[in-house]
Amino acid sequence: MVFSNLNPGKMETRTQQQRQNRNDKKSTEQKSELIIYRVFDLPVNTVWNALTDPEEFKKWFGPEGFTCPSSKMEAKVGGKYLHCMKAQDGKEYWSTGTVIELIPEKKLVITDSFSDAQGNIRSATEYDMPGNWPKELLITFEIEEADGATKLKLRHEGVPGEMHDECRKGWNESFDKLEENIK
């Protein structure tokens, strides 16, 4: 018989490894989309302004230890934005994009790319960011009123698997600052 010399133990190990490789790939693919739910003890219009008004945005954007010294935003479909996060060591991280969808006080969808201070798109590797970042990501903010508070859902698409947890942490720290600094 042709198959008589196969070792069933090795076949099972290989099958288990192939299954694990498929699961790892699925896990990485699933992690390319980051979703965060938050509830803010703030009215909808206040949270909306925090997302779309550059002066309000500067008060909260960036994880703990970062500031947002510059923010420009044209809050209209087709409008551009340019934001800067500045680390305690002085290193600046610029991002730019375009408003794809805007439903006032309900939904904001923007493209998101690493950039320089002039808004020219740059590679994530220029910021020493690990992972295979696409040139353009997609960020969706959805908000709704909930008994005087505001429910927010963030969807950030395109985040590499190895940066998923770090991005989640950064967004949550930013949202903590939003709740503390926006009134």
How would you concisely characterize the structure shown here?
The protein is α+β, with helices and mostly antiparallel strands.
Q: CATH homologous superfamily - what is it? A: START domain
Order of helices and strands: HEHHEEEEEEH
Low-pLDDT residue intervals, each spanning 5 or more residues? 1-31
What CATH architecture label applies? Answer: 2-Layer Sandwich
Helix content: 25-40%
User: Overall mean pLDDT score?
Assistant: 87
How much of the sequence lies in strands comes to 25-35%
Count of beta strands? 7
CATH class: Alpha Beta
Q: Can you give a write-up of this model?
A:
With 183 residues, the protein is of the alpha+beta class. The chain has a single domain (34-181), classed as Alpha-D-Glucose-1,6-Bisphosphate, Chain A, domain 4. It is 30% helix and 34% strand. The chain is built from 4 helices and 7 strands. The protein has helices at 8-30, 44-52, 54-57, 164-181, and strands at 33-40, 67-73, 80-86, 92-103, 107-115, 137-146, 149-157. Strands 1-7-6-5-4-3-2 form a 7-stranded antiparallel sheet. Strand 3 (80-86) and strand 4 form a beta hairpin. The longest helix has 23 residues, at 8-30. The chain is globular. Residues 1-31 have low confidence and may be disordered.
